[in-house]
Amino acid sequence: MALKRFSIDLASLSAGRIVQTVAAFLALPIVARLLGPHEYGLVAVAMSFVMCTIYMADAGMGQSLVRTPASERTTWSSAFWMISGFGGVLSLLLIAISFAAPLVFGEPRLQGLLLGLAVVPMIVSAIAAPTADMQQRQKFRELAAIEGVSALTGLGVAIVLAFQGAGAWALVLQQVAFWLMKAVLIVWRTRFRPTLEFSTLNLAEHSRFARDTLGATLLYFFGRQLDPLVLGRILGAAPTGLYSFATRVMNLPHQLVASPVQNALFVRMVELRDDKAALRDLLLILTTAVALLVFPAVATLAAASPAYFAFLLSTEWLQAAPVFAVLAPVAAVQTILVPANALLLARGRTDVRLRQTFETAVLWVILLPLSAPFGLLAVAGAFTVVNLLYLPRSLGLTLPEVDLRILSFLSILVPATMAALGICAAHALLRNSVHMSDLQEIFASLVELAIAYAVLLMACRGQLAGQLRTLRTLMMRSTAAT
């Protein structure tokens, strides 16, 4: 029963993410054709600042609250007021940045776009505690529905405004509409209601968690969201739009699979955080499942990326296809590290996450400006190299938490990796041997993906059956602990 509930929760979160992502990509072909790379790149530069504030908005306090009993009302209310105040400061910071950004990037319209987006961090921070309440009560299906409805609301706003000639504002107001709708629905469904209480003493145990998480978020911004800022300055808005779209596709596996896994898994790992053996089994099982699901799909999209980009968007966006193909290994690495990231959070090892983020940020801050003058493919290649070379170091910092060796962890990735490489080789051979239209190539790639999944299922069925039994036992234990 516990495994069934976990599976339903995970499927619901994934479905919510799928609706959100599909909504974005239903709007994207329309908006992309109406706007073009320059407008998209302009919003990408503005969103790089906004995304930083979104990641910072709860200062890590929201995830820390999931570990706190709901009965500690003073702690929850204190956290709410602190997070909300911090969100207000971030909104003011965006307003201040809006006056400087046009001078730095030579784009006067950036000021209006940033002013329009300044309300977002305030909304995100205000719903951090209510969202933590719903996560703690494992209301994942309701959260998934909220994500879906909010995404569809944003989709409608973006399409209507794009057809009315709103330009970049169609994408800006899509974000505002999404967060406003999400806030309304979460406030409606949460049980949490803040009281007029505030105690710094009650927040003391959360301060380290929040400090490390906030530090990691700031470093994440400079290490990852720095891309559109540097590219916008060196290459201009249009190339930045192409690169930003390629990275958006690269993040799809994380959004559709890995992020829901982390949200559902985090609560379970918190319940089992003192049992290293159980955490180790849970980490290996979920990582195996994610790799088997994601690696072949990423390889399929990368191998046939020109066909997908040309057919779904237009030839105007075709230059983004090879950029995504180079970034594809990063998409795979991101997904397999998510269960490990949930493990660190559950164990309270935010210091390890901070160190990992700092080290990768330093590497990327050095390589990004060096590679940018050589074009988008050079930037994508440098980013992929950084992530692949840092993987052993990242695992070396994480796996000792559950007494697991790096080689033992990497061995579970072999079947999925071989399937991905097989898809790339088979598709390259087919494309060089047979002339195909874009639609025919997409169909061929989907057939290759189906064959790969069938082969993996047959080859790993014994291992998967054993892991399913273990997972059922772990879910029952975590439910008993609760």
- Sequence stretches where pLDDT stays below 50 over 5 or more residues: none
Order of helices and strands: HHHHHHHHHHHHHHHHHHH
Q: Describe the largest sheet.
A: none
SS elements, strand count = 0
Q: State the distance separating the first and last CA atoms.
A: 14 Å
Spatial shape:
globular
Q: Provide the β-strand percentage band.
A: under 5%
Number of helices: 19
Q: What share of residues is helical?
A: over 70%
Q: How many structurally independent domains?
A: 2
Mind telling me the C-alpha Rg? 22 Å
Structural class: mainly alpha
What is the residue-averaged pLDDT? 80
Summarize the structure in words:
The protein is mainly alpha-helical and 482 residues long. The chain has two domains: 1-202, no CATH class; 207-482, no CATH class. 84% of the residues lie in helices and 0% in strands. Helix 9 packs across helix 10 (237-250), helix 9 (204-234) packs parallel to helix 15 (350-371) and helix 13 (305-312) packs across helix 14 (320-346). The mean pLDDT is 80.
